[in-house]
Write a structure and sequence with these properties.
Helix content is 22%, strand content 24%. With 473 residues, the chain is of the alpha+beta class.
């Protein structure tokens, strides 16, 4: 999967337009393999050659790498399979920037541009696909050929978590990408978890016979632009968003056993039909909120084909961990959140930090009016249903560092004056603090410096020093 090294690392190259950067000496990212090359050349790939197991070890190591900013994980010596396994590709600002071909500070700008429906780029239909190289159908279908991990020790079995579900609206013909957890139940059967409000559930219900089998393709091992787009909830085909990220249409090819357009550069494709009328217990699985989700009586998916490239790479997302949160809660929502709050303060910046599981937002401002922080916090709470806790800080606080945010809360918040609550507010049904309908209390914290109360001057600051030359010898 290696290409000849490029002369200039992506992460340090000069910009050629406002947000994104193109490079004359390197091919663009268009599949998982080219993305892995970019990660490796920019010091963001950890190749694990020691033998590991798909039972917990893959997840443990990937989580540890994310915790220490050690890069994405590429396992090339997996006990149960000859397939290498890749994980953690979009689990930090650095790797997300590499995936989007931009600087870390431009991530929200690039995503904001891509999410504008007018910027969507249609797919390119082709008759040839990388995953055509091998195909199992009929009695040969066996999910056991894939190294499907057991991630967390509280999970109910082996789950497919890194696949993008590709479906089509039977009424309009619009394509859709989504993430659905899938538990292996048999050699050709998966438990397919689907929320009733997601597009897949809506598509199934819109048919004359909602209980009839519904076609689906599971694409695995993808260009990260497609992975990122699949985390967006939008009324357009998410492949158009992936096209906008790449500035060209994503190549797709019709399935072998289902009439669905599937990304042509996928490593692995599973085709089949969801059976709404044939259900089975599915779960639990580590969820984005940091607990194990409940058991669900979910529809089952009967697999009709498994196709894959020669020497395929299996890709997984560690559930309940950084990549899960980045793709599902941060990248699709930060642009919306910033757009919302900039109606109040055109210069405000905002992030949804991964340690907040998507329930928290941090806003950074140049404070000029004592009431502005509270107004911004309320705007953030209404921008997306998940946002429950909002902290507003000054420019001298690094909002990307949790220790800095905690410092501001500790040293700049007088609890009875600077914290407000909105009780009985609508939130997410899976919020651990909410009831089963998502009703909870939202909290705003004004952690800005109130000079009008007491003047302390400037923060103590020591500049960062490059110690490499000082520590030699």
């Amino acid at each position: 999967i290696r290409r000849p090294p490029r002369s200039t690392p992506l992460y340090s190259s000069a910009a050629s337009d406002v947000y994104k950067r193109q490079f004359y000496d390197m091919p663009e990212i268009n599949d998982l393999r080219s993305f892995i090359d970019v990660l490796e050349e920019n010091g963001q790939l950890a190749t694990i050659s020691q033998e590991v197991s798909i039972n917990h070890e893959i997840a443990d190591i990937t989580a540890s790498l994310a915790r220490s900013d050690g890069g994405a994980a590429f396992f090339n010596n997996v006990k149960e399979t000859k397939m290498p396994i890749f994980a953690g590709g979009v689990s930090s600002h650095k790797r997300t920037a590499l995936a989007l071909e931009c600087e870390p500070e431009s991530i929200i700008d690039v995503m904001g541009e891509a999410l504008e429906s007018s910027n969507g780029i249609p797919t390119q239909l082709t008759t040839e696909a990388d995953w055509h190289e091998n195909c199992l159908t009929g009695d040969d279908v066996d999910l056991g050929v894939l190294p499907i991990p057991k991630h967390s020790r509280g999970d109910g079995g082996s789950f497919i978590t890194g696949a993008v579900s590709v479906t089509k609206d039977p009424v309009s013909g619009r394509g859709n990408l989504s993430y659905n957890r899938m538990l292996v139940l048999d050699k050709n059967i998966l438990g397919f978890n689907v929320n009733e409000w997601r597009d897949v559930g809506t598509f199934m219900k819109s048919r004359p016979d909602p209980e009839a089998p519904f076609p689906v393709a599971l694409a695995m091992g993808l260009d990260p632009a497609i992975m990122i787009a699949a985390g967006v909830r939008t009324p357009v085909d998410e492949l158009l968003i992936a096209g906008a990220i790449r500035n060209e249409g994503i190549k797709v090819c019709n399935g072998k056993t289902v009439d669905i357009d599937i990304p042509a550069h996928s490593e692995i494709v599973i085709e089949g039909h969801i059976r709404p009328a044939e259900r089975a217990p599915e779960g639990p699985l580590a969820e984005f909120h940091g607990y194990h989700g409940e058991m669900w009586d979910s529809p089952t998916l009967e697999v009709s084909a498994i196709s894959f490239r020669n020497d395929p790479i299996y890709q997984t997302i560690i559930p309940g961990w950084y990549e899960h949160i980045y793709i599902g809660n941060i990248l699709p929502r930060e642009p919306l959140l910033r757009k919302h709050i900039r109606h109040i303060d055109p210069n405000a910046d905002v992030i949804i930090p991964p340690y907040g599981n998507g329930f928290m937002a941090v806003i950074q401002i140049d404070r000029d009016n004592p009431g502005t922080p509270k107004n911004l916090a309320m705007a953030a709470m209404s921008a997306h249903i998940n946002i429950r806790n909002v902290v507003v800080v000054d420019r001298d606080v690094n909002m990307h560092e949790s220790s800095e945010v905690l410092w501001a809360i500790t040293n700049r918040v007088q609890w009875e004056r600077d914290v407000f609550q909105i009780g009985e507010a609508q939130g997410h049904e899976m919020d651990p603090t909410a009831d089963k309908r998502g009703i909870s209390t939202k909290v705003g914290i004004d952690a800005t410096y109130k000079r009008e109360r007491r003047e302390y001057g400037e923060r103590v600051a020591y500049p960062s020093i490059d110690l490499s030359s000082l520590l030699k010898g």
